[in-house]
Amino acid sequence: MADRGASALSLPQDWPAHPDPILALNRMGSFDWDLDAGLFHMDAQAFKVFDLLPEEYDDRPETLALRVPPPEAARLDAVVSRAIKDGSENYGVYFRIRCRDGTSRWTHTQGYIRRDDSGRPRRVVGIVRDATEELADSEACSHRAAQHEAFRQQTGVVQVISAALAHARSIQDVIDVLKDTHGVRHLGAASLVMGLVEAGRIRLVAEGPAGSFVPGTRVTRIDEPYPMSEVVRTLSPRFIESPEEFAESYPILWPHLHDLHITSAVYLPLIAQARPIGAMGLLYDDRRGFSAEERAVLVALGSSIAQSLMRARLYEQEKDLAQGLQQAMLPRTIPRVRGADIAVRYRSAALGRDIGGDWYDVIPLPGGGRVGAVIGDVQGHDTHAAAVMGQLRIVLRAYAAEGHTPATVMARASVFLHELDTDRFATCLYAQADLATGVIQMVRAGHIDPLVRRNDGTCDRVPVEGGLPLGLSAEFGRLEYPVSTLELDPGHTLLLCTDGLVEQPGTDLDDSMRGLATLIGNGPDEVRDLADRLIRLAEEQAGDDDVALLLLRRRVPDAARACGRLRQHVAPGDAEALIQARHMIRAAVRAWGARDRADEIELVADELITNALIHTEGSAIVTLRALDGSDHRLRIEVEDSSSALPRRREAGEQGVSGRGLLLVDRLADVWGVEARGGGKAVWCEFRIP
After folding, report:
1. How far apart are CA 283 and CA 267, in angstroms?
2. Count of CA atoms in the C-beta half-sphere (13 A) of 282
3. Is the sign of the CA dihedral 177, 178, 184, 185 positive or negative?
4. What digits encode the pLDDT tens for the residues 61-75?
């Protein structure tokens, strides 16, 4: 028979084959252990497995300690002893031996225990074999399985991170997602750095753990020899697989990272819209190298982060634009008003690119001591709504500053909005407050009611009879805006707000208003602190509508009684203005403590106003003053544009006219006439308790 190969042994020609060459071909040796004599006999192949020479061995198992380290020998003895004691017929165990050249080799032994008739163990016969390749293949399979599991976990983490990044609306949101419990720490990274490209430089915006950044790298140039600069220049990721490679590639940076025990790192360019917007680095302290699958996962992660950063940057820019435009349309400053503490706040909608039409305004009114407070909301959330709001605010402010009544101001503003040729309407609430008397006249155009907080902490919604929203004149003809009057006592606070503060999807408006009233009642007394708390509520609700609010608190006067002043303009033929003037006089007189003389004062004032309207054929301006002195007095002045002095006449038996000045002279404590430029003022005074 021809020689077929390079076998170490020659097989005998007879059949079946003998066991010794079969064991040798399979790299197995045999042993026979005489337990009574304590002799451990091995064949030639067993010597090869243990890497022993025959002259080095004396058939005693203790001599095997030359190749079997003590820990392995103890573990092997424990397995054999347990098998002998528990009556087992055989055993098997893997153990390591130390070869002649100092390397380790995995070995496997399998023994059969021979017992006598009484069950006493007498001999152990078995085999030993080299198991290095076997375990190497097993370890390789386990390693591949572990890599696959790690890849699966990393892919899952990337999916979780990408899902969370989809909701990020700011750069800080992106950073928070990466640094939270579902972030890159689950990818095995020990440290994170991130920088954004700004004007040819890279500004570090995140590092983790805190304080782990390298001194001098907070802002770096793109052409500097740092890994983030390199990936920004090349637009390619940089995988660093060992400390030696890190030290060789970046000698300036590596000394600062040495104490962090970094073993590998990856730096990813953050590319959006085909240009680099930044870079991110993940540093590891427990691994070397990256598989192809891991590289793909990390590159995908970098792409997802880059897109999220771009969306966040655009969102922040849009939000800044919206807030800037909105703030430009709102009053830059709120005037200081004597006798009141005023606070205003505004919060833009949760959707950053939406610009709302909410506004507030505080308007000093003629005559002193009076102020107008406005809150409003133009329909829509876009630049057109903001533009309409800006024009409407200016016009309403101009009408109010001219001294018109609240109803007239609102009606003219509605006509103006209609004539703008826009499809938008607006809701609004306008309040004229005399801070000396506390009398507030309010008109409402489709807006929500105001609220009043009292000194005892109670807060209630104030029902105000309303008219249609501004801008609907053409559809419904002449608009009527009824005036409601409220007396605001010293220390009480009036709150005006837009519906964004109270309206929530699925919630009844009345319930929301009651909840807001409770919150205001439990809030701080100081109006600025209360405004801050309310705007924080709006931030927490994160609604899709803007919020504007205005708080006006009437101060408690230092003295028991302060000088008050009210003024009303009455035009010829304006019956509504005349009614409002009478109502204002009646409310003010009672608020000033002259209730006992209210009928007399109202009658005298009515006569003076009527005389001015009839005899001058022009408008009249009615002014009420509460005067402090040794005796408290209330003064009424009626101004007109005629210089002709009034004449007291005797009325006939059937005459109607001629009795006005007689009533004034009879009822008032004192009266007179003063020249006022091209006109005059007829005045009278009443002593009050």
Report:
1. 9
2. 27
3. negative
4. 888 888 888 878 888
Please, which contacts does 296-299 make with residues 24 or more away whose CB atoms are closer than 8 Å? 297/151, 297/154, 297/155, 297/158, 298/187, 298/237, 298/266, 298/268, 299/237, 299/268
144, pLDDT greater than 80: no
Three-state helix/strand/coil letters over 482-506: CCEEEECCCCCEEEEECHHHCCCCC
CA distance 445 to 674: 40
Tokens of 400: 């109010």
Strands 370-381 and 451-453: unpaired
- Please name the helix (run of DSSP H) or strand (run of DSSP E) that holds residue 419, with its range, or none: helix 406-419
Structure confidence by residue, pLDDT tens digits, 633-656: 888 888 887 877 777 666 555 445
Measure the CA–CA gap between 227 and 280, rounded to whole angstroms.
10
State the pairing for strand pair 466-467/439-445: parallel
Q: What is the pLDDT of residues 482-510, one digit of tens each?
A: 888 888 888 999 999 998 888 776 678 88
Task: Say if residue 557 is preceded by a cis peptide, omega within 30 of 0.
Answer: no
In 273-351, where do the E strands start and end?
Answer: 275-284, 340-347
Q: Are 441 and 484 in contact (CB under 8 A)?
A: yes
Pick from 363-377, 531-545, 553-567: least confident = 553-567
Contact 121, 140 (CB under 8 A): no
Structure tokens at 123: 């001999």
Kindly indicate the confidence band of residue 478, based on its pLDDT and cuts at 50, 70 and 90.
low
Residue type, 648: R
- Backbone φ and ψ for 186, nearest 5 degrees, come out as -75, -15
How many Cα atoms are found within 13 Å in the side-chain-facing hemisphere of 73? 11
- State in Å, rounded, how far the first CA of the chain is from the last one: 144
Average pLDDT over residues 316-340: 75
Can you tell me the distance from the alpha carbon of 36 to that of 125, in angstroms, rounded to the nearest whole number? 14
Q: Which H/E stretch holds residue 194?
A: strand 191-198
Q: Locate 385 and state its tokens.
A: 């709504």
Residue 119 CA from chain centroid, whole number = 79
Residue type, 305: I
**Side chain identity, residue 568:** Q
Dihedral (Cα; 168, 169, 170, 171), 10-degree rounding = 30
pLDDT on residue 530? 92
Strand order in the sheet with 493-497: 340-347, 547-554, 493-497, 451-453, 459-461
pLDDT of residue 623: 85
How far are the Cα atoms of 234, 242, 494, 599 from residue 277, in angstroms, in the given order?
13, 27, 49, 77
Backbone angles phi, psi at 95, to 5 degrees: -150, 165
Highest mean pLDDT among 347-356, 364-373, 657-666: 364-373
- Confidence band of 352 (pLDDT split at 50, 70, 90): very low
Beta-bridged to residue 112, according to DSSP, are 90, 125
The secondary element (H helix, E strand) that includes residue 615 is helix 598-616
Give the separation between CA 167 and CA 172, rounded to whole angstroms.
12
Residue 542 backbone dihedrals phi, psi, to 5 degrees: 50, 50
Residue 91: how many CA atoms within 13 Å on its side-chain side? Answer: 20
Best CA proximity match to 426, nearest among 480, 378, 380: 378
Transcribe 1-23 into DSSP letters.
----S--SSPPPSSSSPPHHHHH
Q: Taking residues 671-688, what's their average pLDDT?
A: 80
Structure tokens belonging to residue 677: 């430029």
